[in-house]
Model the fold of this input.
Amino acid sequence: MTGAASAGAVIEFRDVHKSFHGVEVLRGIDLSIVEGETFTILGGSGSGKSVCLKHMVGLMRPRRGSVRVLGEELTELNEQQLVPVRTAVSMIFQSAALFDSLNVYENVAYALREHTKWPEEQVGARVAECLEAVGLAGVEALMPEELSGGMRKRVGVARGIAMEPRVILYDEPTTGLDPANQSRVGELIRTLQTRLHVTSVVVTHELELCFDVSDRVGLLKDGRIVAEGSADAMRNSTHTDVRAFLDGARDHDQEGGYAT
Done:
């Protein structure tokens, strides 16, 4: 289904369905994310959180339904028409997805060289600015293999903000990080929203990150958003699915460790 977006909506899903090999992952997602907010999609592994994100930048297309982003109906756009959307909507992948053969400077400069005709001096200044914004000034010459997990994540964010996006999508941004680096990433998400005035969408199963950065939260279960509200409202919700997820996630966090 298509139609005009809700007032103020930057991203809007209406009755979005997606299947893989006959298995329905999204079963009628309805979602509206407004400009300037940080919206977090909570859900367990395999619930379809990352699938939702990939629809927001046209990396996946729904079997049925409407996906509107920045006023564009993505289901009607071809790959060439999606380029402006993908420039304005930056996706930060779970693995950081750095090019291992390129140093930090080349990784952050990549999109600038692809999509602008800037002279190298201007590219260099922008790279330095983005690295400073994520707390990594002066690491341009390092190779990805020389970076810690937390540094790789932050370089991925620096690359993601190089083109001054209007929307940043974060796919499990703290997975595998120790608590100190998880805290740094959460602080970075909040700082970038304030400094860049971006709309942020975070997918995670980690409660501390969710309630640290979110304006609003939606719980994805059985292919649908089953509950939605402010971070405080969701934290204190008596909704059966919300309480079950929060209690289960806390038990898991107490049992598990962290990768360095």
About this structure: Residues 38 and 200 are 5 Å apart (CA to CA). The longest helix spans residues 179-196.
